[in-house]
Amino acid sequence: MNGYFITGTDTNVGKTYVSTSLARRAVTHGHKVFAFKPIETGCARDANGQYVGADQELLAAAAGNWQQGKLRGLYRFQLPAAPLVAASAEAVNIDLDFIARTTKEAVLQHAATLTLVEGAGGWRVPITSDGDMSSLARLLGLPVILVARAALGTINHTLLAIEAILRDGLSIAAVVLSRRPEDDLAESNHEQIVRRWPGRILMLEADASQLDSLL
After folding, report:
1. Distance between CA 177 and CA 205 in Å, rounded?
2. What pLDDT does 62 receive?
3. What is the model's pLDDT at position 47?
4. For helices 96-110 and 133-140, angle between their N-to-C axes, nearest 10 degrees
5. C-alpha to C-alpha distances, 5 to 22, 25, 26, 189, nearest whole angstrom
6. CA atoms of 196 and 53, how far apart (whole Å)
7. Which pLDDT score is estimated for 184?
């Protein structure tokens, strides 16, 4: 299975922005992209009373809008909280093996050449009573893309997340700093992270071609 597991240093750091940008670039390069966010919290109901994952809808559209049914998300919860907390509020148990199996079956059935699985929240966010986002990443066996803010505070958060991912035995394909116009410290933050970690670090602003090295 060729692809990436996209995680973040925190919530709202730009994971979906990076994931959709990468999906669109991959499509233009001829990939059949499976872009999947299997767990999403903070969901609203549609006209039929079903929860809709806003992030998953953006991912599916970026991948060409071919995904249907369970491939547009397996677990959707109303409460905007960690998956374990949101699932417990609705008396639901999340099955990590089911997520991994569904992902791998979808890749084979639809001949996807690039798989992007976006996590919910950060690396240590709990999903089950004894599993967190790292547990799902290990089951999928995909290299990790770590998305971080480019703003103040990102040096510490990024380096700690890198340490955790590597300690858990997974490889990091890249750190992507998601830069907003107001991020005045972006360049110096980038320099300081480069000084401490020798891996690939990308700065994503408006030009998504910065991600082409991942394809």
Report:
1. 9
2. 98
3. 87
4. 40
5. 12, 17, 15, 23
6. 36
7. 85
Instruction: Tell how strand 3-8 and strand 144-149 pair up.
Output: parallel
Give residue 170's Cα distance to chain centre.
Answer: 15
Paired tokens of 170: 């997974």
Residue numbers in the chain where pLDDT is lower than 70: none
What's 132's DSSP letter?
Answer: B
The confidence score (pLDDT) of residue 35 equals 98
Token code pair at residue 66: 């071919």
Tokens at residue 144, please? 């990790």
Tell me the CATH number for domain 3-214: 3.40.50.300
Beta strand pairing status for 75-76 and 39-40? Answer: parallel
CA gap 121, 93 in Å, rounded: 18
Q: How far apart are CA 126 and CA 131, in angstroms?
A: 6
Contact 212, 29 (CB under 8 A): yes
Report DSSP letters for 20-53, one per residue.
HHHHHHHHHTT--EEEE--EE-SPEE-TTS-EE-
pLDDT at 81: 97
- Point out the residues that are catalytic: 37
**CB neighbourhood size of 65 (10 A):** 10
Tallying the residues shown for the chain, one arrives at 215
Tokens of 181: 């116009």
